[in-house]
Design a protein that fits this description.
There is one protein chain. With about 325 residues, this protein is of the alpha/beta class. It contains 15 helices and eleven strands. The longest helix has 20 residues. The protein is globular and about 55 Å long. It starts with 13 loop residues before the first helix and ends with a helix.
């Protein structure tokens, strides 16, 4: 099922888009990246309807988090929910839409370390190729657990083959939910729950980010995207059973399962989530996974400031 009849298109080349922004074209659709996992369903189910109500059109580009991270930085798309660590690594090119994140306060279910041995005996871990935040978070947690396993990218293969070669497997998204539900591994560790146990803070897995060039050229459209994402979330939260039923038609999960899963996900970006994000960045930097910690407050203020400046200049 395609929510709200939305069209899907390949991303426009970055060079063409740069010319368009330079020419001041303000009616072209915003190219919005959508993570292909079920966890984003509440943000996008009513998104295009809500965005259109704000006078803005969108072209949706679907992909895995790691692919969308690269597309956002390269200019192939304008707005996305990149992995939180990917945003930090490319903060010079990006700024935040501060209303939205994908977070959890404890267990998230869809970010799991599965192991065939107890945690203390883990020596080799295969890593998902679909995310960067989960990999960094696992390395942060391993430091705290006193573990120094060998990490290697998962190179395809069945779960049986991975089980034969590795003590553990890091999975995210729908695949993590499937493996968790099937109880393939004797041990599993929910990274959202482990982070909260360690810090007492929420874990921000993804943020909502926009290219700085796009925010400067079309600040009102950037703000509208953030508002439409939250409006979709709120409309879904007001009708949880209907939302889960709609998601179940698109993804291979039951309505009941998805109602419970969606309840664990948090999509806002309150001061508590910001504190969790800043602590994650601090710990990532401490283990060499982040060269420079971005100023989250400044990044969150950039788009509203650009909107105010554009309004004062009469260009919004």
């Amino acid at each position: 099922m395609t929510p709200d009849g939305a069209g899907r298109a390949a991303a426009q080349p970055a060079a063409a888009r740069a010319d368009e922004l330079a020419d001041g074209a303000s009616s072209a659709p915003v190219r919005v990246g959508r993570i292909e996992f079920v966890n984003c369903f509440p943000l996008y189910h009513h998104f295009e309807r809500e965005l259109a109500a704000r006078g803005v059109a969108a072209t949706i580009v679907e992909g895995y988090p790691s692919a969308l991270n690269e597309m956002l930085v390269s200019g192939a798309i304008d707005v996305a929910l990149p992995s939180s660590i990917a945003f930090a690594r490319d903060a010079a090119e990006l700024t935040l839409l501060p209303q939205v994140s994908i977070s959890s306060c404890g267990a998230v279910d869809s970010v799991q370390l599965f192991t065939r041995v107890p945690l203390k005996d883990v020596r080799r871990v295969a890593l998902t190729e679909k995310s960067s935040t989960s990999i960094c978070l696992l390395k942060v947690l391993c430091r705290e657990w006193g573990l120094e396993p060998e990490f290697a990218p998962r190179r395809g293969g069945s779960l049986a083959e991975v089980l034969a070669d590795y003590d553990g497997l890091l999975l995210i998204g729908d695949e993590a939910l499937y493996v968790l539900r099937a109880e393939v591994y004797p041990y599993h560790y929910d990274l959202g729950a482990e982070w909260q146990k360690l810090t007492g803070l929420p874990m921000v897995f993804a943020v909502c980010a926009v290219r700085r060039a796009f925010a400067a050229a079309r600040p009102a459209a950037a703000v509208a995207v953030g508002a439409a994402l939250l409006a979709s979330r709120d409309a879904c939260a007001a009708h949880p059973a209907e939302t889960a039923a709609a998601a179940a038609q698109r993804y291979d999960f039951s309505q009941r399962y998805l109602m419970e899963y969606f309840d664990k996900l948090k999509f806002g970006f309150t001061p508590e989530y910001r504190a969790g994000l800043e602590e994650f960045y601090r710990r990532a930097a401490a283990i060499g996974e982040l060269a420079r910690i971005p100023d989250v407050g400044a990044a969150a203020a950039a788009v509203p400031a650009a909107t105010s400046a554009a309004a004062a200049a009469g260009t919004v």
